[in-house]
Design goal:
The protein has 508 residues and is an alpha/beta fold. The protein is built from 20 helices and 9 strands. Helix 5 (116-134) runs antiparallel to helix 14 (329-343) and helix 9 packs across helix 10 (263-279). The mean pLDDT is 86.
Length: 508
């Protein structure tokens, strides 16, 4: 429908202009997420600057934008409400240390376990979340302190300015690509509003962004075990949410740019940025898929784009608050609406009837959970459901070809033997009616975990109690060592016996 991703290479001019575009869009988002977390807007802006600059310089994915995010902000609300903002800073420091540990231990590789249907659901759900978050800009707070939808004229003006912004972003690249279309749209709409005197909401109506440099300070909390136990649950959740969103965004940008980022390096950079945030009065953050999409769409590919966005945001705070406050919210909403269009996988509607039903279910489930809860929970649910479906399907794949060899009955197994298939495995055998000599052939099967070891022992006990001879062929060395009852029944063949590891807690 829309080809919004430009397949371009790294270019300093594009990076700088793209970074400026991102910085403009960062302002209202950082302020909004600060309100969500229940902290001062400058706390959100400082977080966007510090997370952005550190991850852009040291992170594992050039072109990816990080800052204060809604996914992490919703986790912070209860902590700030119950214990105050200083406990939040302490929790962010601990969160950063946890994330750095994850990177050092190379846990970033586990993002590869996220199946494609979960990725599609994540992307679609996130596009819906971004769209719904923009609806707040169509409301205002009345004298009674309640939110109301904009009145007719104001609403129509808002829609008109959004439409103009989206039209410029869509059609300008067909004419020229010298300037990022999103930046051109923001500037054009802002000038139109200023010179025509249009009465519409601006960034200045949301909050003042004027401030100084962030200052170093150790979080003012008691350094006690009680404090640690208060912040630990929040830090763990923040670390998990931040890493999941960052690594999934990294994977998405990898696909869009046809390059490959470094997940573990990104984990360390995200952790370092959050630790610095806690000591400089920021609320912490992670990768922002919306801003990253703006950056990629505008031609930002290198580290310079993220650095420019962070430095420009700081300049806005220090010197440019009066100018930035005049930007109409409609222009920024228009930019984000184009991000929604570019982020949503419209092909999902076409492939839903073509892909397996289980994959379609996971895709829809993850999208729904993303909208209802948060991104991290949606991905965790999607991975668990996918794993359970996978286990259920493969549990039914185990079977046995039965042969007769010189008064001996041979069960030749096919398919993996693991926790999900042990019940099916036992049903394959008939100890009561089998002859005195029985052989189980594992040449075409694999014993995967400790549950499989236990069920082999259980079957061996059944044959032993009936006084029948049971032999086990082609078991791996690890299986032979772990078997207790059936350990002496294994027929050893040094040449043909397999050699592989078995997933069990008995192997230290």
């Amino acid at each position: 429908m829309f080809n919004l991703i430009a397949k371009t290479t790294q270019n300093p001019k594009d990076d700088i202009l793209s970074g400026l575009t991102v910085a403009l869009a960062l302002v209202p988002e950082a302020v909004a997420f600060a309100f969500v977390a229940g902290v001062n807007p400058l706390v959100g802006l400082y977080a966007a600057f510090m997370v952005g600059i550190i991850t852009s310089i040291f992170g594992g994915r050039p072109g990816m934008i990080s800052g204060a995010t809604g996914a992490m902000a919703v986790v912070m609300v209860a902590l700030v409400a119950d214990h105050g903002v200083q406990y939040l800073f302490a929790a962010v420091v601990l969160c950063g240390l946890i994330q750095m540990s994850a990177g050092i231990l190379k846990l970033g590789k586990f993002i590869r376990l996220v199946p494609q249907p979960v990725m599609l659901g994540f992307v679609n759900g996130l596009a819906i979340v971004i769209f719904l978050s923009q609806l707040e800009q169509f409301k205002f707070v009345d004298d009674a302190g309640t939110k109301q939808w904009l009145e007719n004229n104001a609403m129509m003006l808002m829609f008109g300015l959004i439409a103009i912004t989206m039209a410029i972003i869509h059609f300008l690249p067909k004419v020229t690509k010298i300037v990022p279309s999103a930046l051109a749209a923001i500037v054009a709409v802002t000038l139109a509003v200023v010179f025509l005197g249009l009465d519409t909401r601006t960034v200045g109506d949301v909050a003042s962004i004027a401030g100084g440099l962030p200052e170093f300070s150790i979080p003012a909390v008691p350094f006690t075990l009680e404090t640690f136990w208060i912040i630990l649950p929040y830090s763990l959740i923040l670390a998990g949410v931040g890493l999941i969103e960052s690594l999934l965004t990294l994977t998405l940008i990898d696909e869009l740019t046809q390059t490959r980022g470094q997940g573990n390096r990104e984990c360390v950079a995200q952790g370092a940025s959050n630790t610095v945030n806690g000591f400089f009065g920021g609320m912490g953050g992670c990768a922002m898929i919306g801003q990253s999409m703006i950056n990629i769409n505008s031609g930002g590919r290198g580290r310079l784009s993220g650095i420019t966005a962070a430095v420009a945001l700081l300049m806005f705070i220090l010197f440019g608050s009066d100018i930035i406050s005049q930007i109409p919210l409609a222009a920024l909403v228009g930019v984000m609406m184009m991000v929604v269009i570019g982020t949503f996988e419209w092909s999902s509607f076409r492939i839903l009837k073509k892909i397996p039903k289980k994959d379609a279910f996971v895709l829809v489930l993850v999208s729904g959970v993303t909208v209802a809860t948060d991104l991290a929970m949606a991905v965790i649910v999607g991975v668990i459901v996918s794993a359970l479906v996978f286990a259920w399907e493969h549990a039914q794949h185990i079977r046995a070809d039965i042969k007769e060899e010189e008064n001996t009955k041979v069960y030749e197994l096919h398919g993996p033997l693991f926790f999900g298939s042990v019940s099916y495995f036992l049903e394959l055998f008939d100890p009561q009616n089998d002859p005195d000599n029985v052989v189980i052939e594992f040449k075409h099967s694999r014993v995967a975990d400790h549950s499989a070891i236990e069920v082999i022992d259980t079957l061996a006990e059944r044959y032993t109690k009936l006084g029948k001879n049971l032999s086990l062929r082609h078991l791996s060395t690890e299986c032979q060592k772990l078997l207790s009852t059936a350990g002496d029944l294994v027929e050893v063949d040094v040449i043909e016996d397999p050699n592989y590891k078995v997933a069990t807690d008995k192997l230290a």
